[in-house]
Amino acid sequence: MTGASSWSFGEDDSRQITAILDEFLAQSSARTALIVDKAGQMVATVGETPTFDSTAFASLTAADFSANDQLAKMIGEAEFGSLFHQGEQESLYLADIAGRVILVVLFDTRTTLGLVKLRVKATVGSLNQVFTEMLNKDAPQAPRVETDFVDDAEDEIDRLFGG
Amino acid sequence: MSMINYASREINCKLVYYGPGLGGKTTNLEHVYQKVAPGSRGKMISLATETERTLFFDFLPVDLGTIRGFKTRFHLYTVPGQVYYNASRKLILKGVDGVVFVADSQIDRMEANIEAMQNLYDNMSEHGYDLTTIPFVIQYNKRDLPNAAPINDLQASLNPGWPVEEPSKMRPMPDPQHEGEFLIQQIEGQWIERVGYYEAVALNGEGVFDTLKALSKLVIKNLG
After folding, report:
1. Does residue B59 sit at the A interface (CB-CB below 8 Å)?
2. CB atoms closer than 10 angstroms to residue A48
3. Are the beta carbons of B43 and A144 separated by less than 8 Å?
4. Among A31, A92, A118, B113, which residue has the fewest nearby CB atoms (within 10 Å)?
5. B3-159+197-223 CATH fold
6. B139 contacts B211 by C-beta, under 8 angstroms
7. Is B129–A4 a contact, with Cβ atoms under 8 angstroms apart?
8. Would strands B10-18 and B70-78 be described as parallel, antiparallel, or unpaired?
9. How is chain A split into domains, by residue range?
């Protein structure tokens, strides 16, 4: 379709990922786990529903991770596999999954960075496996929508942006 | 890299406004923000310097609503115009579904336009994307200024076209926006394809939605 590769995220994929993240949240006492695509799109949210604007959050997470990726290269590292942002009450832990998405863990003072890091390791391993399989599965053909979708979307574009 | 999320029934498409510094990329987004119904757009995020120059990007999500059961959204991004922010420009192109090149029509900005266009091609190809196959339109902004270059000159420098390789595309395709002009035509025996262009005065909103509408339709068609 284009030079850029597309992918899809199905209900089975969602169930597998939710199960992995539910277990992680139970073991680590973290509040929420999010999966964000590296292009800046939210893929999944598990745990407490965040009160912030998740679309903006996903876009900034991807930018944060990409910027740090470049910083890593500048100092001679292939990548920073994970990032940690510490706040007074709330903190963030970010980890790369299969080079394609980012796991974001939101946690507060109910747990510690040590416990989160300890538990996240196995979770990253499981997620890597699931996402690698999922992305390979999509490789032969890009996801497509039905023709009616395109017609309806075009009408909606005319309505929203002026016909 | 549009992602179709069947689990949450969402489709998100990434549109990037590219171009030279002070060309009007952020102004395009600000106009969209002001004019689109508040229920259909999210918060606009600007990572800018103290002097309001874009440092990393501007971001504006626009909601198309639920179409055939899928919540469909366009994520609009701008890149920093200044060359020394090239690292961030490149990052924003990751996963792009469509590009608007916002050119500054002023004669003395021609060199900056050409440099930014070359930089766009280079950055796209570093990601492995081919600008001749992804949705792409050009906006000639600041048409109201007295020192605006003639459209023909801008077209010759920024939209000269590329040779058509595919035999099935080798037939004249009129430009629906400009009577008597063509998006695909034969010139001296060679079939050439150009991208659509739009004239704009982004500061007062002229041409902003024409450009966005054209690009978003190309992106949606590409999903089908």
Report:
1. yes
2. 12
3. no
4. A118
5. Rossmann fold (3.40.50)
6. yes
7. yes
8. parallel
9. 11-161
For residue B154, give every residue at least 6 positions away whose Cβ sits within 8 Å of its Cβ, in sequence order, or none.
B103, B105, B110, B113, B140
- The sheet with strand A42-47 has its strands ordered as A42-47, A32-37, A101-107, A91-97, A82-85
Contact A28, A105 (CB under 8 A): yes
Q: How far apart are CA B175 and CA B148, in angstroms?
A: 22
Q: Which of A6, A60, A153 sits opposite B220 (nearest CB)?
A: A153
Instruction: Using CB atoms, pick whichever of A41, A67, A160 lies closest to residue B12.
Output: A41
Contacts (Cβ under 8 Å, ≥6 apart) of B126: B90
Q: Which residue spans of chain B are classified as CATH 3.40.50.300?
A: 3-159+197-223
Across the interface, whether the CB atoms of B91 and A10 are under 8 A apart is answered no
Q: Helices (DSSP H) in A29-146: which residue ranges? A: 54-74, 113-138
Interface of B with A in 149-208 (CB under 8 A): none
- pLDDT tier, A143 (very low <50, low <70, confident <90, very high otherwise): low
Q: With an 8 Å Cβ cutoff, are B224 and A144 in contact?
A: yes
Which residues 46-75 in chain A show a CB within 8 A of chain B? 53, 55-56, 59-60, 62-63, 66-67, 70
CA distance linking residue A116 with residue A136, whole number of Å: 29
User: With respect to CATH, is domain A11-161 assigned 3.90.230.10?
Assistant: no
Per-residue pLDDT of chain B (224 residues; tens, 9 = 90+): 577 888 888 999 999 999 999 999 999 999 999 999 999 999 999 888 777 787 888 999 999 999 999 999 999 999 998 777 888 889 899 999 999 999 999 999 999 999 999 999 999 999 999 999 999 999 999 999 999 999 999 999 999 999 999 999 999 999 999 999 999 999 999 999 999 999 999 999 999 999 999 999 999 998 87
* B91/A67 CB distance under 8 A: yes
Nearest to B2 by CA among B74, B104, B105, B88: B74
Q: For residues B196 and B137, give the distance between their C-alpha atoms in angstroms, rounded to a whole number.
A: 5
Whether the complex's predicted ipTM is more than 0.90 is answered with no
